[in-house]
Design brief:
- With 334 residues, the protein is of the alpha/beta class.
- The protein is built from 14 helices and 11 strands.
- β6, α6 and β7 form a beta-alpha-beta unit.
- α2 crosses α11, α11 packs across α12 and α12 crosses α13.
């Protein structure tokens, strides 16, 4: 009986030890729409996370790829643990970092895409930010929290003074980029402006009377990270190998895109089921001098400073490194 008891105890300890060290067998990744998410499309198509998971010795990992319209659902998902990795704008990451410091501690895995965001307008009376009124509706992915919404606040603060940073907020409406394109094309719901990205920007420029009022590069004073990958410290600490597998897969995807952008353009068309653009169209977009797939964060520190100044976040970061994990802190970010 004593030997049986010792055997059961040993088995129990083994099970507990396995449970303490076993990593998740399923990873959920959330993203939005557009060519800026191409690295994730490459990772999905080529099963790169699964490849690197096996290299880490954790066997078969199931990876689910979910598309959502804006950051709100992703934010809730990463906090609850339902989603492990999310692709969001820098403001969403900064907000999550600030709000979760006492619990799951969300931080940036890395940057992913640096590219211009275009504030396109159709109303001929709107010649500057100052000309927007209650007659206009500006489509952004999510009101108040998306990168585009924060860029509008930065532009308003510059134009009307810091105290009036939210002046344009009442005229914003939350629409995914495809829905924003449809709304401004048809002039539905009063939408006559859209803060968007490629390839939707290029399609909007074909609409008679459409023009670009400003960009995030102009607002921030240079190239700026538009999409970052974020995860919780809680997940990373409990699953260091699957976390590393994802990071290495992302790096491989970005490297492969940068080596052959024409092949990458073909992958985008296939994965996005995009019939409105050609390989040459997408290749032109991602080959532009102001467009880059990179792990290095750019201008995220400046965005965080603004958000702290207007009270959107309560914690003032010492630098951009405060809200990114160590893997990218040696990169020349800002």
């Amino acid at each position: 009986m004593a030997m049986l008891s010792r055997a059961l105890s040993a088995l129990l300890l083994a099970v507990l030890a396995f449970g303490a060290t076993a990593e998740v067998g399923e990873i959920n990744v959330a993203q939005q729409y557009g060519v800026s998410f191409l690295p994730l499309m490459v990772m999905e198509r080529d099963k790169l996370v699964e490849k690197h998971a096996k290299a880490e010795g954790i066997g078969d990992v199931k990876v689910n790829w979910v598309k959502v319209a804006g950051p709100s659902v992703m934010n809730d998902g990463v906090i609850s643990g339902a989603i492990q990795f999310i692709a969001v704008g820098a403001p969403s990451l900064i907000t999550l970092w600030d709000k979760t410091r006492s619990n799951v501690q969300v931080k940036g895995v890395s940057a992913m895409t640096t590219y211009p965001l275009y504030l396109n307008v159709r109303n001929p009376s709107v010649k500057s930010i100052r000309d927007f009124s209650d007659k206009d509706k500006i489509a952004v992915p999510s009101i108040k929290v998306s990168t585009q919404a924060i860029m509008l606040q930065m532009a308003a603060a510059k134009e009307f003074g810091d105290a009036n940073y939210a002046r344009l907020d009442p005229w914003t409406v939350g629409l995914s980029h495809p829905d924003g394109l449809l709304a401004i094309t048809n002039n539905s719901g009063g939408v006559d402006a859209h803060f968007t990205s490629s390839p939707f920007h290029e399609q909007e420029m074909k609409i008679p009377g459409m023009r670009t009022l400003t960009t995030n590069y102009e607002i921030l004073g240079g190239p700026a990270t538009a999409v970052v990958i974020a995860a919780s410290t809680k997940y990373r600490d409990a699953n260091p190998k699957s976390y590393r597998a994802f990071y290495d897969a992302l790096k491989e995807a970005i490297d492969s895109i940068n080596k052959d952008k024409r092949a990458a353009a073909k992958i985008y068309l296939e994965q996005a089921k995009d019939s409105k653009n050609t390989v040459d169209d997408i290749y032109g977009m991602i080959s532009a001098a102001d467009y880059a797939y990179t792990l290095t964060p750019q201008k995220v520190g400046k965005t965080a400073e603004f958000m702290y100044k207007i009270g959107s976040i309560k914690t003032k970061p010492g630098s951009w490194k405060d809200f990114f994990f160590p893997e990218v802190q040696n990169l020349p970010g800002d």
